[in-house]
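Here is a typical sample entry:
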Amino acid sequence: MSRRQQILLSVGAICLVIVAYGGYSDRWPWTGINEHTASLWEWLNLLLLPVVVALLPIWLRRGTQLRTEQKAMALASLGVFSLVVLLGYLVPWAWTGFVGNTLWNWLNLLALPVAIALIPVIGVLKASWDERHWRFLVAGFLIFLIPLLGGYLGDWRWTGFPGNTLWDWMHLLLLPLLIPIVVVPAITALASQDVSAHRAGETAAAEPHPAHDSTEADLGHTEA
C-alpha cells in the first residue's frame, strides 16, 4: 500500500469516527447514526464487503504472506468477535443488534464477502485438491444439513429458513458460487493468455533476423 493510500485511508477512518461520535452523542441528528439505527449488525452490513474488497489487492499481491504474529492476531480477533456474537444473543446486548437476526441473515451477510476473500486461495486449493478436501467438504455439507432440515421440517425459527423458497436460495448463493466456479477460472485463463502473448512478443523481438542480415551482406558485396 502506497503512502498516499495510507494517508487517504487514515483520513477516511478519522472522519468516520468523528461522524459516528457526533451521531451517537446526539449532537448531530442529521447523521441518522444512533443506538437505534446503527447497531454493530448494521455496521457489519455497511462495512464488511467494502473492507474485504479493499483488502483483496493486498492479499492478491505476489509474495504476500501472513507472519506468525499476524495469524495470531487474526485468530484472536476472530475469537473476540465470536464471543461478542455469543453474548449479543445470550445477554442480550442491544447495541450489537444481533437479537432477531437468524442464521439466514448471517448467510446473507457473509456469503459474498467470504467468496471474495477466498479468491486468492482458489487456485492453490484447485491445484492441491485431494481426498482430504473432499472429506472436509462432505462433512461441512452434512453439518449444514442439520439446521437446514431442522429449519424446514422441525420449524426451527432461529434458522430463519421457513418461508424461504428455492428462488431465495438462488438469490443468496448464485453470485458467491459463480465467483469460484466461473469468474476466477475465466480471469485466470485470460491473464495467462495475456502473459503468454507478452512473453512471445518479447522473445520474437529479442531474436536476431538472419535473413535481413544476409540481405545487407549481399548488398555490400554487390556495391564492392
